[in-house]
Amino acid sequence: MSGSDRFSAKDVKPRGEPNPDGLLFGKRLVFTGTLASMSRAGAFQAAVDAGAKPLTSVSGRTDYLVLGVGAGYRKPDTPQSTKHPKALALAADGASVQIIDEDQFVCLLAGVATT
Q1: How far apart (Å, rounded) are the C-alpha atoms in residues 61 and 46?
Q2: What phi-psi label fits residue 26: left (phi over 0), alpha (psi between -120 and 50 degrees) or beta?
Q3: Is the model's pTM score more than 0.85?
Q4: What is the end-to-end Cα distance of the chain in Å, rounded?
């Protein structure tokens, strides 16, 4: 995304009352890579509708990093995304960030635990 295509969670409003008992309620999410089942804007909207806060960068306060297609590695030591290695390093240092794929994100949206 670039220029006018950029958006943030502040730009996305919930389309109803989020379920406070939902699995994503109050969680901080970061997306990386291309999602197969929805656009990035659609993923932000789904997360906000679930009561989550989508962010654009990984930090120690991130609950989930959602890996889309192309978010992994092309070859050893050549990451396609800086978010994935950063999340791995934070997790290794004891942060509670969980790295999940798109299918796991969709399951959490549906209220199905993935662990």
Answers
A1: 20
A2: left
A3: no
A4: 31
Rounded Cα distance between 26 and 109, Å, is: 13
DSSP assignment of the chain = --GGG---GGG---SS---TTSTTTT-EEEEESB-SSS-HHHHHHHHHHTT-EEESS--TT--EEEE-BT-SEEETTEES-SHHHHHHHHHHTT---EEEEHHHHHHHHTT----
Digit-by-digit pLDDT tens for the chain (115 residues) are: 334 456 666 778 878 888 899 999 999 999 998 899 999 999 999 999 999 999 999 999 999 999 987 655 455 555 567 898 999 999 999 999 999 999 999 999 999 987 6
